[in-house]
Write a structure and sequence with these properties.
Elements: H1 21-35, E1 38-49, E2 56-61, E3 66-71, H2 73-76, E4 88-98, E5 103-113, H3 116-133, E6 148-153, H4 158-170, E7 175-180, H5 188-203, E8 209-216, H6 230-237, E9 243-247, H7 255-259, E10 262-263, H8 267-274, H9 278-313, H10 317-359, H11 362-405, H12 407-412, E11 417-419, E12 437-441, E13 446-450
């Protein structure tokens, strides 16, 4: 039996140092967050729940324990791989405690499939879905060479050094701007998405910016996973500026490569595809310069001969002016004649149109229409009585014909119609039987009858007596 509660000063319940439940939970939460902090945890997903708030709640478990987890909406939208019960994942999060209920939990910041095989499976599923939606249908030509190339990559990586070295050697005329973004980790995809959006908005203010290169060096599948982000692929697809992607080595292919307008196997190859080789261009310019020099000499020789010929044919300016004056007088006379002829023609045309307008005057047309309407009204008034008389006579004839063939008229002459109990007309005596109830329909009224005997025409039955009803 437990000892009774005591009110002595040593009783903890009366001690001023006693903590409230909320204060204890608050201290426990702070201790967990400060001492344990952010960790990676691997386990199996269980009880995945996605309420309408957009948050994701689930349990991470192994064969000995389980851990409640919460993935809030702001981070859930960056999780590319689907989360399903039974999947084995690695999650990164902050160990904490939900104070209102005292629940120990992990606030998840990132989720990825555990093991490369699962990553590849998630990659293939997402790739198939985006391909079906047409996200990989971009194929716009990139400017060659670009006037202002925007490079999205890490400022400290080998990729930017390779790109700048190739551009400087091949085509130093292109302006290059480095847009520093992380290319690995959970912040990489959101940073690149934000940079793409900003560059597309700024392109309207600076038309010189005409191409984007997204690149980084090689690495493992996990290192390159940011470039398999679904939202990054969609941002590349919707970019107004054409995008080239060069991620990893030749064997590496990410969703960003498929969504881009063009891809290159390495950063150096991307730079080679984007710009021409200036040495080749210089050689071509030299050949063109030689051709131009030869063409100029030939043209000068030809023009010199033509000048000599024209000099021999050159007349005095006064003669040329006199000939031009005579030609001008002739043209002036032709113009005056043409103007008079045109004025006469337009005058005749105006007179003809005036006559046509008088013939088609609205007053005259209205008068003619009124006369036609009056004549039609008179014909209508004359035709209506005749038509009514014809239809009245025809209706009377039809009524007489109908009366002649009406069954009621036949009944009126003394005939009757026999009907059995089902309302069927009796046409033969053989269709009845003695004792059967019948009904006779007369010209006026009905009779209820009973069959007492059945016979045929000229025959007798029931002891030689004629059949009767």
């Amino acid at each position: 039996m437990p000892p009774p509660l005591s009110d002595t000063p040593q009783d903890p319940a009366s001690d001023s140092e006693a903590l409230s439940v909320s204060e204890l939970n608050r201290r426990a939460r702070r201790a967990l967050e400060q001492d344990v902090g952010e960790v990676w945890v691997e386990g199996e997903l269980s009880g995945v729940s996605r309420p309408s708030s957009g948050h994701v709640y689930f349990t991470l478990k192994d064969d000995k324990a389980q851990l409640r987890c919460a993935l809030f909406r702001t981070r859930a939208r960056f999780v590319a791989a689907p989360m399903r019960d039974g999947d084995r994942v690695k999650v990164r999060g902050q160990v904490s405690l939900f104070e209102p209920r005292g629940d120990y939990q992990l606030i998840v910041e990132a989720v990825r499939a555990a093991g490369e095989g699962e990553l590849l499976a998630a990659y293939e599923r997402l790739k198939a879905r985006l391909a079906a939606e047409g996200v990989f249908a971009n194929a716009r030509p990139l400017p060659f060479p670009p006037r202002h190339l925007l490079v999205l990559t890490s400022p400290t990586g080998a990729a930017i050094r390779d790109v700048l070295a190739v551009l400087a050697a091949r085509w130093p005329l292109s302006q290059v701007t480095l847009i520093p973004v992380p290319v690995q980790g959970r912040e990489a995809a959101p940073a690149m998405i934000g940079a793409l959006g900003l560059l597309n908005r700024q392109s309207a203010l600076d038309p010189e910016r005409d191409a984007i290169l997204i690149t980084r060096g090689g690495g493992s599948l996990e290192d390159l996973w940011a470039f398999n982000d679904e939202h990054l692929a969609r941002a590349i697809f919707h970019s107004r500026l054409p995008v080239m992607a060069a991620v990893g080595h030749e064997v590496d292919t990410t969703l960003a490569d498929f969504a881009a307008d063009a891809r290159a196997p390495t950063p150096s190859a991307a730079a080679e595809q984007l710009v021409p080789d200036r040495r080749e261009r210089l050689h071509r310019l030299e050949r063109l310069a030689e051709r131009l020099t030869r063409a100029q000499r030939a043209r000068l020789d030809t023009d010199a001969q033509r000048l000599d010929h024209l000099r021999a044919r050159l007349r005095h300016p006064g003669e040329v002016l006199a000939a031009r004056r005579r030609q001008l007088d002739q043209l002036e006379a032709r113009l005056r004649r043409a103007m008079r002829a045109r004025l006469d023609q337009e005058r005749r045309r105006g007179h003809h149109l005036h006559q046509r307008l008088a013939l088609r005057s609205p007053d005259r047309l209205t008068e003619q229409a009124g006369q036609r309407l009056e004549r039609a009204t008179q014909r209508l008034h004359q035709a209506m009585p005749r038509a009514l008389s014809r239809h009245r006579d025809r209706l009377g004839g039809l009524a007489r014909e109908l009366q002649a063939v009406s069954p009621l008229a036949v009944l009126g002459r003394g005939y009757a119609i026999l009907e059995d109990e089902r309302g069927q007309v009796v046409r033969r005596a053989a269709d009845t039987a003695p004792g059967q109830a019948l009904e006779a329909r007369l010209g006026e009224g009905r009779l209820a009858l009973t069959v007492t005997g059945v016979g045929s025409d000229g025959a007798e039955s029931h002891g030689g007596k004629p059949s009767s009803l």
